[in-house]
Amino acid sequence: MAIGAYQAYRKTQVETSGQLDLVIMLYDGAIKFAKLAAKMLRDGDLAKAHDYLLRAQDIVGELMSSLNMDVGEIAEGLFKLYEYADYCLVEANIKKDPEWIERGLSVLTGLREAWVEIARKPRGGEDVVSS
Length: 131
What we know:
CATH topology: Four Helix Bundle (Hemerythrin (Met), subunit A)
Radius of gyration: 16 Å
CATH superfamily: Flagellar protein FliS
Low-confidence stretches: 125-131
Strand content: under 5%
Structural class: mainly alpha
Number of domains: 1
Shape: elongated
CATH class: Mainly Alpha
Number of strands: 0
Distance between the termini: 26 Å
Order of helices and strands: HHHHH
Number of helices: 5
Helix content: over 70%
């Protein structure tokens, strides 16, 4: 996927810094709840782990539903990555295995880092998100 495609996606789907901040906040929430779920699984608190996993899944679902699929390849790729992260969270909940959470977290943290980089790229001579 070319950088130009990401820039086109950002321009059409995430136009303002407020929207970029919101996307990053969604990632932060999903990552936070997934990490808490992994800790609860390791501590043996299955009920709390279940609740945290559902919260993380809800956020991933929100990220999926907010995609503008008309944009094309980039949105389709993001959807597949979100779908995989969600699958990992579901498997973690079914199998009570924090390793599945780690797999989902690797996707979510990588995507978050990419969005932060996109947000830092100057647009019109100024940073979109402050460091």
